[in-house]
Amino acid sequence: MSERVPEAPATPIRVTDATIDDCEAVADIYAHYVQNTVATFDYLVPSLAQWQAKHAAITAAGRPFVVARAVDDGVERVVGYAYLGTFRTMPAYDLSTEDSIYVRPGQGGRGIGTALMAALLERANPDNVRQIVAVIAATGGDGSIALHRRFGFDEVGRLRAIGHKAEQWIDCVYMQKDLWPDGDAPAGTDG
């Protein structure tokens, strides 16, 4: 029996595959989190060129990179993004990914995170993704932890005082979802 994944709520949110042209909006959203929160441990805002390179690498690897779009004041704009990036660079981790989900400031509570997570999981190809790992800053991360839990992620550990930002030590919660819950590799996978 397959695990039921919560559906994205019926809101005027449209999730699409990200294009290179979306990288400017993605960079803008992420810059807020770098400069104003501990949700990311980045200290420096990545450049547009770095985001374009990240987009190219993720999509070339056959992994999803999606954006949520909404119409505000008659104009459609990117209100969030998510992707499955590299978990670790050593070859033994090739079928493991780390998810990243960010919502434009002021847009929380509209179901954007839920829509993005649903799209990531729908697009995750079990032929090249077995494990999805979430690394969540515990300070202010309750919403992200709850989102991951709703989609079947299990909390598998906590690293205490692992990051230092905004003059404080921050724990990270590790959550994990196995796309091969029965342990068997999908047909055509070397797993």
UniProtKB/TrEMBL annotation:
Tagged with keyword Transferase: yes
The UniProt record lists the keyword Acyltransferase: yes
InterPro entries: Acyl_CoA_acyltransferase, GNAT_dom
SUPFAM superfamilies per record: Acyl-CoA N-acyltransferases (Nat)
Span of domain N-acetyltransferase: 13-180
PROSITE patterns assigned to the protein according to its UniProt record, in alphabetical order: GNAT
Molecular function via GO: acyltransferase activity, transferring groups other than amino-acyl groups
Keyword terms: Acyltransferase, Transferase
Protein name (Swiss-Prot/TrEMBL): GNAT family N-acetyltransferase
Native source organism of the sequence: Gordonia lacunae
